[in-house]
Write a structure and sequence with these properties.
This protein is mainly alpha-helical and about 260 residues long. It contains 9 helices and 3 strands, in the order H-E-E-E-H-H-H-H-H-H-H-H.
Length: about 260
């Protein structure tokens, strides 16, 4: 009986240690993601100054708005394609190379990626009103928090969603590229609706995956691996948030 109590006590101690470590791990995931979000929106907002009203330039984008020289280069020259697709290439490169990076290096690369993403989405400040951007950001934040909390607390195994959701993302990328070159009536609206639903599902799925991965690997004691896992988790949730925000903005944002 005493031996059983000892075993139960050891098991309880290990469970408590895992729970404490999981909380710290998730705090790091959300903290890293939040810093990345701040960097992204700071970079995007900084570039909103490329549209001016007091100094007319060669490229007019509204009744009283003109692009600066840098704005013309970013948004109307072939450089716009690099700006548009750089985040996608960055994600593929980051995912492929993270095993060769230290946790500290991976964190720096993530923050650089967040800045690149900010440059890529900076045109939202030229297209949509500032109020609608803030409004949609708050809506996205509330939805993201609820979905992520559900993914963290639910006892339901949603790991089977993964393959379906990834196929949906691939379909969205293909459809978006097609719509970019050959716009079709209603396709953009359908892409936005599906995009919101897919990334809402990914928010819950990725949160549960981050949690379950930590629980499975907590006994390894590999702090370097756990550090990189937190950064990759932050990247996954960051991408879920950004994409859900952008699709909601297409649906709900008021255009200039």
């Amino acid at each position: 009986m005493a031996e059983f109590d000892t075993i139960r006590g050891v098991a309880g101690t290990r469970t408590a240690a895992i729970d404490e470590g999981l909380r710290a791990h998730m705090n790091k995931v959300y903290g890293t993601m939040s810093v990345g979000m701040l960097i992204t929106f700071a970079a995007a907002w900084a570039l909103s100054g490329l549209a001016v009203t007091d100094v007319p330039n060669a490229y007019q984008i509204g009744a009283d708005k003109f692009l600066t020289g840098l704005g013309v280069a970013l948004y109307t020259s072939p450089l716009k394609w690099l700006v548009m697709f750089a985040p996608l290439l960055f994600v593929f490169g980051f995912s492929a190379g993270i095993n060769r990076m230290s946790a500290a290096t991976a964190q720096i690369v993530f923050y650089v990626f967040a800045m690149v993403m900010g440059i890529s989405i900076s045109s939202i400040f030229l297209v949509f009103t500032g109020f609608s951007i803030i409004q949609v950001f708050l809506i996205t934040s509330i939805a993201f928090a609820g979905l992520s909390l559900w993914g963290y607390t639910t006892k339901k195994d949603i790991s089977g969603w993964g393959s379906f959701l990834i196929m949906g993302v691939i379909g969205l990328i293909v459809a978006s590229i097609v719509n970019l070159f050959w716009p079709m009536p209603g396709l953009a609206f359908a892409i936005s609706i599906l995009g919101v639903l897919i990334f809402a599902g990914l928010t819950a799925y990725d949160t549960q995956k981050i949690k379950s991965t930590y629980v499975q690997m907590a006994h390894s004691g590999d702090t370097e691996w756990l550090g990189k896992a937190a950064i990759m988790g932050a990247l996954s949730l960051y991408l879920d948030f950004i994409n859900m925000f952008m699709f909601l903005l297409q649906l709900l944002g008021n255009r200039e």
